[in-house]
Specification:
The protein is built from 13 helices and 14 strands. With 376 residues, the protein is of the alpha/beta class. It is globular, with a radius of gyration of 21 Å.
Length: 376
């Protein structure tokens, strides 16, 4: 079997986010890290929504980005709504050998495979339609229950998500290809400072910041160290109000969205990291923390527990008392124990290499575009 492919394919990728968007998450970062490694061999076009300050087209490391949709008045979601409705036309117009679609809010799956004559791969980086259905009392869950049957091929990040997809589409072809880790995290020095770190979208729905604040407040004041919340938030007033009601407003800092260098520095200097998410499709902050040598307090729930090292503290899902105990456990660990943990954490994280992940993604793409090639 050949280890490399000797011909290029034209890839059209639908990404509902963009790394230049101040509100972006980990999905577009994954896509860019993979595609910049493949762009010397393949022709890659990524469709993303517009956002404040975006250009119509941009080339990043030989990857072509085209922004679709527009803002309507002061409607904050109009960029994504108009992007969504512009996709069928774009899918019919572009020339490509393979369509890759990131699942997106609010239904995860879409009808886009019906508009493409080329093979389609669903990249499952968002799968929370059922949670949105409960939140907004609308049937978004239908996309995850029935829409996934429109797709034959899936890239999933974890074993638990593969099981979920196969439960809904038993005939699906799936490939588990995890997220990688930026090399900068492995360069972090062994420092264990005077604050606890949370990184990500600061919200109380998916990311569980409300659970974190409640657990943190249960620790005696004299045993606490400050808690830093790093990331953009649509709920800053609610977060501040909750901190005030818990009497921890002077110990909790919301510092907003951070850059790559700030992310490395914050991770290097924190004592440890908290990931209180209710739901994730991977848990990139967990692997990044491990790469930086830091342990994580998380809920013992898939897929987060799949990507956490043995030195991380896993507690019963959504049990605030147990999460507080987990934080206390890491606060008590000696400097020597933290150093020992750091070595184990980094060794665990070393399996998540972007170079290897890009090769896995390319191999799966090629097997879909030209079935049987893998057997050569």
């Amino acid at each position: 079997m050949c280890n490399t492919w000797r011909y290029s394919i034209k890839i059209l990728h639908i990404d509902p986010d963009d790394i230049d968007n101040p509100m972006s998450g980990g999905g577009p970062r994954r896509n860019f890290e993979i595609y910049r490694r493949l762009s010397h061999k393949h022709e890659i076009t990524v469709l993303t929504p517009t956002f404040e300050g975006s250009t119509q087209e941009l080339i990043r490391d030989n990857v072509r980005y085209i922004r679709l949709g527009r803002k309507i008045g002061d409607h904050g979601s109009s960029h994504h709504i108009t992007f969504f409705f512009s996709l069928p036309r774009a899918i019919r117009q572009f020339d490509y050998d393979l369509l890759v679609e990131d699942f997106m809010p609010p239904m995860s799956a879409t009808l886009n495979p019906l508009f493409s004559k080329a093979p389609t791969i669903a990249s499952v980086q968002w799968f929370f339609a059922e949670a949105l259905s409960r939140q907004y009392k609308l049937p978004f869950y239908l996309g995850e229950r029935y829409g996934v049957k429109l797709y034959k091929h899936f890239v999933v990040l974890t074993q638990s998500m593969q099981n979920t997809i196969l439960q809904r589409n038993s005939k699906a072809s799936t490939s588990i290809i995890p997220n990688g880790i930026d090399a900068g995290f492995f360069k972090c020095l062994d420092e264990f400072g005077d604050y606890i770190l949370f990184v990500g979208r600061v919200d109380t729905n998916q990311k569980g910041v409300d659970l974190l604040l409640q657990a943190y407040a249960k620790i005696p004041r004299e045993k606490r160290i400050p808690l830093v919340l790093a990331g953009h938030s649509f709920q800053e007033p609610q977060i501040n109000a909750l901190a005030l009601s818990l009497g921890i407003e002077h110990e909790v800092s919301l510092i907003g969205k951070i850059s790559g260098e700030q992310r490395y520095e914050l991770m290097q200097k924190c004592r440890f990291v908290c990931v209180p998410s209710r739901e994730e499709t991977f848990g990139m902050v967990i692997t990044e923390a491990c790469a930086a040598g830091k342990s994580v307090v998380l809920f013992d729930k898939a897929p987060m527990n799949e990507v956490a090292s043995s030195c991380c503290v896993k507690v019963r899902p959504f049990d605030i008392d147990q999460y507080s105990v987990g934080i206390s456990e890491l606060l008590k660990r000696s400097h020597q124990n933290l150093l020992t943990d750091a070595k184990i954490n980094r060794l665990w994280a070393s399996q998540y290499s972007w170079d290897e992940i890009a090769l896995q993604q390319e191999k799966y793409y090629q097997s879909v575009v030209e079935p049987g090639r893998l057997n050569e």
